[in-house]
Design brief:
The protein is α+β, with helices and mostly antiparallel strands and 155 residues long. It has four helices and eight strands. A hairpin with a 3-residue loop joins strand 3 and strand 4 (55-61). It has a domain at 7-113. The chain has a four-stranded mixed beta sheet with strand order 1-5-4-3, covered by helices on one side. The longest helix is centred in the middle third of the chain and has 11 residues, at 76-86. It has helices spanning 20-25, 35-44, 76-86, 107-113, and strands at residues 7-9, 14-16, 49-51, 55-61, 67-73, 96-98, 129-134, 141-146.
């Protein structure tokens, strides 16, 4: 959700072609006022657009006319354009495509497959203990990581 607007994955790719006016009025390091964002606001009459280095969010209307934020994948060639602009390099007008995210980059996939939870959202992973065992390898000690019941030295 973004300001009570649901977010969904884009269902199709979108062509983005910033012109010189978009570039001239753009602000460096501002995801809502970069050349891409200005172009999308102009061409789609989108009230909210946020373009980050790997993901873009565009507010549009769904099939029933309700506002929705669509999430797009920003690929390397478009990302390079953002990085050049943000670093102060002169850029020219050009056309790019924001893509429908592949399954492995969807929010649903990440929620299902991302196992670590931050300390703010749930329990942190159990800490492992390091135990050093002297070994006669000529290279010093061997360090084993894991829980104490998983690490057993045979003497």
């Amino acid at each position: 959700m973004f300001r009570n607007i649901p977010v969904r994955e884009a269902r199709a790719s979108i062509h983005v072609q910033p012109n010189q006016a978009d570039i001239k009025g753009a602000t460096q390091e501002d995801p809502s006022n970069c050349a891409y964002a200005r172009c999308l606001k102009r061409t789609l009459e989108a009230p909210n657009v946020f373009v980050f280095k790997s993901i873009a969010y565009v507010q549009t209307l769904d099939e029933k006319g309700n506002p929705i934020m669509e999430r797009y994948n920003v690929r390397k060639y478009a990302r390079d354009y953002i990085v050049k602009f943000d670093s102060g390099e002169k850029i020219e007008a050009g056309g790019f495509v924001f893509h429908k995210p592949p399954n492995s980059k969807t929010l649903k996939y990440k929620q299902e497959h991302y196992k670590y939870q931050s300390p703010h959202t749930g329990p942190a992973p159990k800490k492992t203990k390091m135990i050093a065992f002297p070994m006669r390898s000529g290279k010093g000690k061997v360090h084993l990581f894991g829980k104490e019941d998983q690490i057993k030295a045979k003497m």
